[in-house]
């Protein structure tokens, strides 16, 4: 998608692994460095809302998402 539109402004990681695994986030960002992603190691370890370096061309965010609650809410709405 990034190649087809020519750039991206930001990227978000979420869900259990995205929220709780700094090593996985670091590996993902490393694989996407060609897009301009670059994270601050300390921020990544702390899982702050934004983990990108000030010099990064693309901002990287960690989003707190509770997938199980979202699915339960959807199922509950269908049962009413």
Gap between N and C termini: 38 Å
Shape: globular
* SS strand fraction: 5-15%
Oligomer: single chain
Radius of gyration computed on alpha carbons? 15 Å
Give a brief outline of the structure.
The chain is mostly helical. It has helices at residues 2-5, 15-20, 22-31, 41-46, 67-79, and strands at 10-13, 59-62.
Explain this structure:
Strands 1-2 form a two-stranded parallel sheet. The protein is globular, with a radius of gyration of 15 Å. The chain is mainly alpha-helical and 80 residues long. The protein has helices at 2-5, 15-20, 22-31, 41-46, 67-79; strands spanning 10-13, 59-62.
Question: Which key terms come to mind for this protein?
Answer:
single chain, 80 residues, mainly alpha, two-stranded parallel ribbon, 2 strands, 49% helix
Write the layout of secondary structure elements.
Blueprint (H helix, E strand, L loop, with lengths): L1 H4 L4 E4 L1 H6 L1 H10 L9 H6 L12 E4 L4 H13 L1
Parallel strand pairs: 1-2
